[in-house]
Amino acid sequence: MVLRSISLTFLLILILTGCSEANKTITLDQVVSSIEKEDMELVSKGESHMDQLVSVSPHLFRFSGTDGDFDQESIYIYVYDSEDAVRKAVKEQNQNVNSLTFVQSFQHKNVFVIYATYKKSERHLENIEAALKKLE
To answer: Which residues, in sequence order, are CB contacts of 13 under 8 Å at separation 6+?
Structure first.
């Protein structure tokens, strides 16, 4: 009987720990750090209030060395409270893309990242995806 109680208590602790880990949110600093570990240098341009999705302003970054108008490569990082909010942002984002010729979006947990450029370029896509997958 004592062994059964200990086993049930241990099982309950495992379940609760697993649930709390599943709900752990990712921060902006974690996303930026992970991207920069993939040999991509980001330059912060602050919040972009004009590009809100689901009432959240993204943090805008440019890749180092892409300051000209036509070679700009940007990353918009949205950090939400939940994965459900990210799903809503994805739907809203699909309606908002207009003047950029190449846009790729990435979702991971409570984070939504948009890679945007005026000319098609896929040189950072694999690194961004790898960086996000490393975030747990």
So the answer is: none
Which among 59, 47, 55 is positioned nearest to 89, based on CA atoms?
Answer: 55
Rg value, the chain, Cα: 19
Do the beta carbons of residue 90 and residue 126 sit within 8 Å? no
- Cβ atoms 27, 79 nearer than 8 A: yes
Provide the whole-model pTM: 0.70
CATH class for the domain made up of 25-133: alpha beta
Q: What is the spatial distance between Cα 82 and Cα 65, in angstroms, rounded to a whole number? A: 33
Give me the amino acid identity at 43: V
Cβ burial, residue 114 (10 Å; 0-12/13-18/19+): buried
121 versus 124: which is more confidently predicted?
124
Instruction: Give the pair of three-digit tokens for residue 50.
Output: 């004009």
DSSP at 120? -
Are the C-beta atoms of residues 63 and 88 closer than 8 Å to each other? no
Asked whether the predicted pLDDT for residue 48 surpasses 80, the reply is: yes
Sign of the CA dihedral running 89, 91, 92, 97: positive
